[in-house]
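Anyone else keep sequences and structure tokens together like this?

Example one:
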Amino acid sequence: MDHKDLDVWKKGMDVVEKIYSISESFPKAERFGLTSQIRRAAVSIPSNIADGTARKSDKELLQFISIALGSLAEIETQYLIGIRLGYVKRDKTLVSLLNDEKRLLLGCRNYIKNKI
């Protein structure tokens, strides 16, 4: 299985693009703070999916899917912090992307759990 064929990986890549776009509006003073943090969390999602699919076992893949879910939770939190601090406005497209990715990751996790 090639990670680039997986919808969960493709959606993760969409999340990365959107996060990079949205975080452009963060203040320059946040370059090494919130901007860096939210971008690293976004990149972590498709990266962990790719890493997990390259592993030899479903158990390892499950671990990497769990890490990607954790990164998604980080993004949700950091995005809400950005809203609270007035760095960004609510973005329906991002919220929809995050919800879709969460659904796909949870589906993946449940599928793998049932396999092992």
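And example two:
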Amino acid sequence: MNKSPLIAVFALLTSLQIPQVSYSQGLDGYLCIGECMVVRTKEKIPDIQDIYFDTDQYVLDETDKEILRKNAEYLMNNKNVHLEIQGHCDERGDNYYNISLGERRADSIKAFLISQGVDDSHLHVISYGEEKPDCFQSNEECWKKNRRGHFMTSKRIE
């Protein structure tokens, strides 16, 4: 059997990757063009500050709300910026519980941003539970850093 046509088809299929939205909280931004063709840009996208939760909590306190008001103001003044809201947890609790808690954290952030006038279509929620810790030690100081709402931005060019 001649494997050349099979190899050619495989090479063609692997080259047809569908681009996904890419988010960045680093120094450089990413642009999402059309239906999410992402390109790197030298334009700076300002950092949007994380918020932190108490153990087993997803309710926003006044400090969180003040941070989120500033984030909402930025998003409303920059209509082409999209925000991924990530819910994170510390390592305690099982996976199912932490994914669920992370989702409640991200959803409470999204609901607050919408209540401040941010367009729902510019917000995306995802829960990572305990899977993407910011700190890897097993102590209270580290757990506190991991119980967070983390934000990644992308900028869409229409």
